[in-house]
Amino acid sequence: MQLEILGNANTVSAQKGALVINTPQAEARVTVYSPTIIRVCITKQSEPDASFAVMQQSQELLPYRESANEIEMNTSALKLIINKSPLRFNFYTADGKELSRDDTRFGTNWQDSRVINYRKLYPDEMFIGLGEKTGNLNRRGSHYVNWNTDAALHGVNDDPLYKTFPFFIGLHSGLTYGLFFDNTHKSYFDFGATTDEQTSWFGADGGDMNYYFFGAQSIREILKDYTWLTGRMEMPPLWSLGYQQCRWSYMSAQEVLEVATKFREKQIPADVMYCDIDYMDGFKIFTWNKSSFADPKGMIDQLKSMDFRLVTIVDPGIKIEEGYKQYDEGIANNYFATYPDGEPYTASVWPGRCHFPDFTNDKVKEWWGAAFTALIEPGVEGFWNDMNEPAAWNQNIPWLVKFGKRFMPEIRNVYGMEMAKATYNGVRNILDNKRPFVLTRAAYAGTQRYSAVWTGDNAATDEHLLLGHRLVNSLGLTGMSFTGVDIGGFMGNPTPELMVRWNSLGPYTPMFRNHAAEGMVRREPWEWGQGNEAIIKKDIEQRYRLLPYIYSGFYQSTQTGLPLSRTLAIDYTDDEMVYDIKYQNQFLFGDSMLVVPVISTELTTNVYLPEGDWYRLSTGEKYKGNQAINADAPLTDLPVFVKAGAIIPMQNVVQSTSEQGDGILLLHIWNGNEPTEFVYYEDDGITYNYQNGEYYKRTISFNPEKKSISLSAVEGAYQSKYKTIKLVMHGFEGSIKEIDNNTAVMMINY
Ligand code: MIG
């Protein structure tokens, strides 16, 4: 094996918007995307690899200054100092504070095709991010691999899992930066795990040393920049935010309808039923089982009459069977991944021997997307993309399998995202103006543009309950806001206590879905005894009460990339307690609810309340922040705290998001000393009309100095479904002094 270390700059020039530096080993190109985003791409190829993730183009090159030893480039926010001999890249804030830099000795280097970047590790440096990764919130001292894997039966420390998000945020000396290594090969991150406490490193088995450096000085701003670069989610269909009931599998149309009917009889709110793989004819994608699902349209019509939507699963593997449409068309048009001699690659999955669509090919994407008519015509509205790591029984897909010009090692990590993209584009086309719900298991940076994700096959244990929220919150640091876990645990059977506890976290999980593996005990809310059923029902009702807040929270994600479920590190970056493993599972749900996941065997818990004042949601009891408290945590009352000054819009319980409701928006406000604001957002929840101005948006403000609550003028052309706004005040003692209906300002005496 040969080691090459990036050496001295030979030539430096400005070329087509890039600063191009040649060394004996490789060519480095520096481009500027915004004042806070600079890209460094060091390549040995004549053209660097194209990106699957990035949506933006670089700007014009900024002027740079070159001296004998250095090149300096400045934006309004960043200073990049490039050492010429040897070539090293060092980032500073505009006023000269060191953010992050190459290790002077090794910088970027290669061992054959493997490309690695060694960086200086700061004594107090912490790292957060990387998406769906086990381990602690603070990733200092840990190392990770990105190699999308069907991680069935995974343990709470396993790595890698299903997804690749090579983006992390570094924190040290009161500074923040982000780094996105946009390379789809198998990649590696070491945050000071196996070094001398002086270096961190990352790299990949192939491709370019291609990274985007983010220099904004807050995690919020870095997330905004990262999601500007890689895209943001769209408004989800409102129904997908309701309660979702899944199982591998409801075995017949009759069973699906029975379960749905029971929700309505028992008045437990719900919006979604699922069909897992057994709805198909021999697991052939885009078919229906002719006996157990003989009349899909009839079934879905009945579901619709009960205000339920249906989500069906699709896997990438296409069964080898002459006469099966997808197989015949795929073969006729060369749509499958192949061996180098052109023969389609074959592996076994659920349907038996299968070929795999080459989703990197636009024609294949169109073909795949158009096939969804088989599901959409009878009325399916949600599309669950499974097994897209891609998974194949007992085997690692051989490295020489080709996807067009590229081989498996460079495609594996993006295969799932490309499948989700093909699905999303296809169903959007067919559904016309209706929003689809797409859910995928495998993903790469940028997947938020097309799909929600869930964290795959977890297990029915307390450790998995806690891990689930760390995964969700870490995904939230990489652009994925619409995320969920299998509530109750996929493998194994939860105790009733665990089921109840896990379900109580459902209202505060961006996607609230109950799911279980084949052969596991039934998981529906009424399977746990009457007392537990009542608790579960109350928690699901809480989800529906919170929908106005949740929907506005997703709107915030579409605008800023801020996730709905947030590690406390986002808002309390400099508070070391939030990284303490005792408190690292706590998170903010939306702007102002602090949720404390508690295992099912503990009925009290330690809670860390960050700065400010907090109220317990269930009791109204007030606490000072900046301290750890002991909180009761009975199975009937998960500890949730509300920040002083919080403005939380809620509604009365409805049985589904299709129900009209009583037209009352309940505006809850908790007393506080600082002025606060909440951006309320609403639209029809179903169509894309919001993109043409059909929305209803107003800023709600609470001003303790003026003792006023005010609503800004309505923006947008949509008529709110709420006819009355009712204020619910918490922690105030006093009365209303004056209401001015014209200006929508209310003065309070307290
Ligand atoms: O080989 O479709 O993660 O949610 O129920 C297992 C059956 C395939 C794995 C998914 C799981 C789903 C299951 N699938």
Strand content: 25-35%
How many individual helices?
12
Catalogue the ligands: ligand MIG
The whole-number mean of residue pLDDT values reads: 97
Overall, the morphology is: globular
**Strand segment tally:** 51
* Percent helix range: 10-25%
The largest sheet is: 9 strands, parallel
Q: What strand line-up does the widest sheet have?
A: 33-32-30-27-23-22-21-35-34
Q: Which residues form runs of ≥5 with pLDDT under 50?
A: none
Query: Cα distance, first to last residue?
Result: 75 Å
Task: State the secondary-structure class.
Answer: alpha+beta
Which value, in Å, is the CA radius of gyration? 26 Å
Description of the molecule:
The structure is a single chain. Strand 6 and strand 7 form a beta hairpin. The protein is globular. The protein is an alpha+beta fold and 750 residues long. Strands 33-32-30-27-23-22-21-35-34 form a nine-stranded parallel sheet. The protein has an eight-stranded antiparallel sheet with strand order 2-3-4-5-20-17-16-13, covered by helices on one side. Helix 2 packs parallel to helix 3 and helix 5 packs across helix 7. The relative contact order is 0.09. The mean pLDDT is 97. The structure holds ligand MIG. The site of ligand MIG has 10 residues, from loops.
